[in-house]
Design brief:
Shape: elongated
CATH architecture of the largest domain: 3-Layer(aba) Sandwich
Structural class: alpha+beta
Number of strands: 20
Number of helices: 9
Length: 364
């Protein structure tokens, strides 16, 4: 287990009368790739800016390697930031952009040149030293911005939606590039995005945020397979989220039909949220099997089919709810089907008792 490098302790921040972060606490380990994930306005960029020294919290502390750096300016912190708009100096060539921070630190020319060569090799742009930034593609500019950051040997690299301006294929390529860089450099990455696929692809740890609170912290697998509430389930990938009644341990009623599940401890006949992923829904054609199918489940009709490449996405109307189903088997529109779900794939969650409870801080 890597040692803890950063602690954001009870951070609160408001802009005017609008609170953005409310008593947020987060621990980040050395050599970890942490992604702050959430919708616009959830506080993720403000969290990154407080960590980088570009904002000062109204309350709380930023602890870095055991030292309080809450009021330390950005240039005194052992971290560098790569912004969405790469902020390259357009009047300087690639080598001069990379060298800028080293020259400010008054490093000697031989040291600077060795660092330029190292960084260009690392990001795969050797030979581009004398190109101007505006002659480079978006992906190349992003690599130069990363190269400029890493030559300063930061312990932490902060990245604020750095892939947002790239097209889909290039964005996917750069995701793998960032994973490689993180593994080669052995430094901590703190990454901000609203893109769930980016977070799931690159992260060791995902921090899901909403309305200034942390909703869940976990591995990509934990966040996707075991969301703690309906917000996380809905934000991370597609989900079927329904009202249900927890009849008793290991039995839940969904849309008037009882299903076996594995959850326990929710009480008896208690209203709950039920989450089922589209890929976990199984369909049985009643047109072929006949209506006498003995499988437990709901009866519905396929209303829409879209081919997504690796699977078909189908909409199935059953008991007044439109299910999203992902399957490699295509069921044509108007096919009568039975919907079944394995007990392990039914996730039960407590319903929030009020709208204020829908965004809540997790317990430490």
């Amino acid at each position: 287990m890597e040692k803890e490098l950063i602690t954001l302790s009870h951070i609160s921040k408001a802009f005017g009368a609008q609170p953005v972060l409310d008593d947020l606490t987060l621990h980040i380990r050395e050599n970890e790739f942490v992604t702050l994930l959430g919708p616009s306005g959830c506080g993720k960029t403000t969290t990154l800016r407080i960590l980088g020294g570009f904002e000062t919290p109204d309350a709380g502390q930023v602890i870095f390697d055991g030292k309080d750096i809450t009021n330390l300016p950005p240039n005194k912190r052992q971290l560098n930031t790569v912004f969405q708009k790469y902020a390259l100096f357009t009047h300087l060539d690639v080598a001069e952009n990379i060298a800028f921070g080293l020259k400010v630190k008054k490093k000697d020319n031989a040291y600077i040149q060795s660092k330029i060569d190292y960084a260009l090799n690392l990001v795969g742009l050797k030979g581009f030293e004398h190109r101007m930034p505006d002659s480079l593609s978006g992906g190349q500019q992003q690599r130069i911005a990363i190269a400029r950051a890493i030559v300063n040997e930061p312990k932490v690299l902060l990245l604020d939606e750095p892939l947002g301006a790239l097209d889909l294929k290039l964005r996917q390529d750069m995701q793998y590039e960032l994973i490689r860089l993180k593994n080669e450099l052995g430094i901590t990455f703190v990454y901000v995005t609203h893109d769930q696929e980016e977070a799931l692809t690159m992260s060791d740890t995902i921090v899901v945020m909403n309305q200034g609170y942390i909703q869940q912290i976990g591995t990509p697998e934990d966040i996707y397979n075991e969301p703690v509430n309906a917000f996380v389930a809905d934000f991370i990938g597609d989900s079927n989220i329904m009202d249900g009644i927890f009849v008793q341990d290991k039995l839940v009623e969904i849309l008037g039909v009882k299903f076996n599940c594995v959850d326990m401890g929710f009480g008896k006949n208690k209203p709950v949220d039920v989450v089922i992923r589209p890929e976990d829904v199984e369909l049985i054609s009643l047109d072929k099997e006949g209506s006498a199918s003995s499988e437990e489940g709901l009866t519905g009709v396929v209303t829409d089919v879209i081919f997504k490449g690796v699977h078909y996405e189908m909409c199935v109307m059953a008991n007044g709810f439109e299910w999203i189903v992902h399957s490699t088997t295509m069921f044509p529109v108007d096919t009568k089907v039975k919907i079944t779900v394995h007990p392990y794939n039914i996730q039960i969650m407590n319903k929030p008792e009020s709208e204020d409870e829908e965004a809540v801080s997790i317990d430490e």
